[in-house]
Design a protein that fits this description.
7 helices, Aminopeptidase, binds coenzyme A, seven-stranded mixed beta sheet, alpha+beta
């Protein structure tokens, strides 16, 4: 795994990665990705990273700090190349993003998932996230069907023992 911040040097590879994803996977990124100029706007943000394998991006993670009175909260967005799933990349990217977000003073990280994403829910749960809200009929898919939205949260103060358990504490102290 080679996790790097998103910079102008990897924008072309990142544009290619986003271009290879399905419409459903792109919804998890939740950014304007309409063209290279829009993707270029992501460069330089200290809370966005890619994993590079042989000059190709195979995973992307970002923590978006919420505005105003929720500025201590970050929202995590994560997507891994479908061909690379199941090899630990998603977990590694999520762990890296959590560690770095907490270092910047963010105290709580949330992630939004559809309730049927059992694999992703299991992954985030093992990283110390717990269920915080269930929003009924909050997602409408391309066919117009409604799905429930699950909000998972990781609070750095409450979850210190879990952080220790998943090996984040050493990184946070450094
Ligand atoms: C969710 C996602 C990032 C996981 O990435 P990944 O690289 O496949 O995940 P990993 O290989 O690191 O797996 C992490 C853990 O989750 C488990 N897991 C992953 N996918 C799973 C699935 N479909 N079913 C059951 N368990 C699963 C793995 O067994 C692993 O368990 P471990 O921690 O005990 O080893 C990836 O499936 C993806 O990009 N999905 C679409 C976007 C998305 O849902 N993003 C999350 C919300 S923003």
């Amino acid at each position: 795994m080679t996790i790097q911040p998103v910079t102008v040097d990897n924008i072309e590879a990142l544009t290619g990665f986003f271009g290879s994803l399905s419409e459903r996977d792109l919804t998890f990124v939740r950014e304007d990705l309409s063209d290279t100029a829009a993707v270029s706007a992501l460069a330089g943000d200290p809370l966005r990273w890619v994993d590079i394998d042989d000059e190709r991006v195979d995973g992307y993670v970002a923590v978006e700090r919420l505005p105003g009175w929720s500025s201590h909260v970050g929202e995590l967005r994560l997507v891994v190349d479908p061909a690379r799933r199941g090899s630990g990349l998603g977990r590694g990217l999520a762990q890296h993003a959590l560690t770095e977000a907490f270092k910047t003073g963010i105290r709580k990280v949330v992630v939004e998932l559809a309730v049927d994403q059992e694999g992703a829910v299991a992954m985030f749960s093992r990283l110390g996230f717990t269920g915080e809200a269930l929003l009924r009929d909050h997602i409408r898919d391309r066919d117009g069907h409604l799905h429930d939205l699950l909000v998972l949260a990781h609070n750095v103060d409450e979850n210190w023992s879990t952080i220790d358990g998943v090996g984040l504490s050493d990184a946070l102290m450094s």
